[in-house]
Amino acid sequence: MRLRYLFHLLLCCLFTAVLPVTANTASLNALKAQADSAYASEDFHTAVQLYSDIANRTENAAIYYNLACGYYRMDSMAKAVLWFERAARLEPSDEDIRFNLTMARNKTIDRIIPRHEMFFVSVWKSMMRSHSVTEWAYCAIAAFGLTLCLVLTYLYSSAIWLRKTGFFGAIFSLILCLLFNVFAYSLRAYNSTHSSAVIMEPAVTVRSTPTRSGTDLFVIHEGTRVEIRDDSMREWAEIQIADGKVGWIERKTYEAI
């Protein structure tokens, strides 16, 4: 009798936990269907509103991408760049996101030439950012599983060629496992210590000090990506642009990626 009671209690708890999630998913799916329909009808204003509602409730690269496309079609390049950047942060290996992000950037005003980096540094960063932290973790798990299989092949196979394959293959896959872990750790550390943003104002004057009376250094425009170096002040942040220039801007002029 007690076991039956506990079983019923467990079922009640399970349904209590699952039903709200199911209802929320159904609600988001309905909103997405409306947004997709509005976008297909070229009612981009409505589509953007609906996609924005979904984006505020869930973190999803596809929704961010659709929202960015809506802003792009509305010729709102700063917001298009912002949401393409957010989509790329979640799915860095997605070619469509990267292509459309480049298209949106090409429609912005600033043409900033990135500062020169050593070749191996550029290659390392490019490889590290080619996948998300989660994807690198999955690659590491797969490589570790392959390593175990190859070790077992080496230990229990009677054929010489299989033992050699297992031995050298295990070493290679173990190296890959370690490399994937390093990529995942490095990317996670980079994301936690580097904060990026997109300028949202038509034109922003970058100053030498965090005051309006500071010396004007240079001007950047909407859609430009900046790296936040110091955001400890309430109304100002120190930023760096791709060519290495540094200065202070008001926090209200940008949105974080």
3D structure, described in words:
- There is one protein chain.
- The chain is α+β, with helices and mostly antiparallel strands and 257 residues long.
- The strands form two sheets. Strands 6-5-4-1-7 form a five-stranded antiparallel beta sheet. A two-stranded antiparallel sheet has the order 2-3.
- Helix 2 (44-55) packs antiparallel against helix 3 (61-73).
- The protein has three domains: 2-106, Tetratricopeptide repeat domain (Serine Threonine Protein Phosphatase 5, Tetratricopeptide repeat), CATH 1.25.40; 119-191; 195-256, SH3 Domains (SH3 type barrels, Roll).
- The N and C termini lie far apart (56 Å).
- The chain has eight helices and seven strands.
- Helices cover 61% and strands 14% of the residues.
- The radius of gyration is 25 Å and the shape is globular.
Strand neighbour order, sheet with most strands: 6-5-4-1-7
Strand content: 5-15%
- Mean pLDDT across all residues, rounded? 88
Total number of β-strand segments? Answer: 7
Molecular shape = globular
Computed CA radius of gyration, to the nearest angstrom? 25 Å
The third-level CATH topology of the largest domain is Serine Threonine Protein Phosphatase 5, Tetratricopeptide repeat
What is the SS-derived class?
alpha+beta
